[in-house]
Amino acid sequence: MNQEITPQILFENKEFVSGLVSIVMLTLNKLKYTKECIESIRRQTPELHQIVFVDNGSTDGTIKWLRQIIKEKSNYRLIENTKDFGFAGGCNQGIKASEGEYILLLNNDVVVTELWLSGMLECLHSNSAAGIVSPMTDNIDSGLQRVTDANFDPGRLNEYARTFREINRHRRISSRKVAGFCMLFKRELVEKIGVLDESLSSVNSEVDDFSLRVVLDGYRNLIAGDVFIHHYGSGTFIDKRIDDHKAMPGNKRVFADKWSGISSDSILGKKLIIRSAIENAGEMNQKGEVDKAVKRLIEGIEQAPDSKVIYQALARVLIEAKRSKDAIDALHSMPNAGREDIRTLELIAYCQEGLGLSEEAEGSADRVLSIDPARASALNLKGILAYKRGDGKTAEGFFKRAIKSDPGYGHPYTNLGILQWAEEESQKGLELLERGFILSPAAMDTANRYHSAITGTKEFARAEGVFRDAKALHPVNRRISYLLIDILLQQGKYNLAMQEIEEGINLYGIEGGILPAAMEQGERLVQKRSTGRVKSRAHFPSV
């Protein structure tokens, strides 16, 4: 097997149209879904776009209908296949025929909503390293993008999507895997890494493989957490998915064989080692196993000592654990080439702040801002340092600048909320703290501070849904689970709390001390069926 991926692709049109989104849509019968999907695109997509239909051998009148509409729409194109070339094969045909700066692979069994495409483009442009962007939906087999909401009504889809956008505005979730029903990326991405691998012969494997290759090339796959579209999950690929489930073990083996056969000494092998170490450590850290996470990253450093990103990942874990001295030592031990990286300089600044070296932290933050004046995390740090000096007005200005620079970064909202709270503007403070948590729920400080504010205002019912959404996006995060249990106990929802506790035991085990206080308190309250309010030990910390 070739151990390095050859990312060559020949577009039919070497020149592309700037700003144009090429929507690639596969069809194979199921005409009623295609019609509804196209009608929703027509209504909800004012952005410059084309649709490249790839029909894989329909026999139900789909071809006749598609031939008619492409006569009426100059921005529509049809590729007719006499047989089924599968998901990857059909998508690759559409990609090669596309003319846009952006490419969007879209299932024909979705119904899009207002601002769907502008929201996804906004997410794609939010990060220079963004690879694939995919939205939230109501019906997929598994993954973080599934929204389970008893209030969802397909008959009021746009209203639901509008409210969903307002609540989760600017939310972005980094994820190696994304679902294949809707994937947006730049044309240059496939020029660099290649198209979907048709040898894997399974929609899930093909999408997982494509997602992995994107990440290994240094990009970040993002879920546009404020965009919701409806997915029937019953369109063109319903029969194909049944076949895929039967062939799942074989497909997994093909996927595993492809990646396990790569030499650890190769460039791609090194990238796999780095990615594996960072992902493994990230999950351990979410579970509260900080020492295990640190150990895993150190193992990764031993295998790939020239990788600056592992050192940076190690420093982030240690900074969040309030181990600033260990974090700065790790950064100082990295190869010289990585010490001048803007992310390294920024992490050093946060380490210095954690060690109480305010002047040094100020200087480091200024150095970062001299490189990138709009660096949101450096602006946030400047605000923290100003607050510590007692200059609340200057701190507020820096936090607002950080939010303007990156409205999807939760920490400055949290810090601004703390300022509002200190000024006895509790409602404004709570709204900002809630926004900070929605945007950065996995960060320990944003979670703790929002929970403390909820405890202070006793708005537990309000917080329950917010914490449940956060848990759905970060299912192994022990801190979020613990705080959700407390929210339930505060409302007297003891049975629900016990369900969460049992789930926590299954996920984390007992020996690790997972949720011990909540477990003990929950069992006691269930037994006594107490109606009294549980006293909270939460406090409201400073910046």
Q: Top keywords for this entry?
A:
single chain; 543 residues; 11% strand; five-stranded mixed β-sheet; 10 strands; Serine Threonine Protein Phosphatase 5, Tetratricopeptide repeat; 25 helices; 4 domains; alpha/beta; Spore Coat Polysaccharide Biosynthesis Protein SpsA, Chain A
Brief sketch in words of this structure:
With 543 residues, the protein is α/β, with parallel strands linked by helices. The chain is built from 25 helices and 10 strands. The protein has 4 domains: 244 residues, Spore Coat Polysaccharide Biosynthesis Protein SpsA, Chain A, CATH 3.90.550; 64 residues; 90 residues, Tetratricopeptide repeat domain (Serine Threonine Protein Phosphatase 5, Tetratricopeptide repeat), CATH 1.25.40; 103 residues, Serine Threonine Protein Phosphatase 5, Tetratricopeptide repeat (Alpha Horseshoe), CATH 1.25.40.
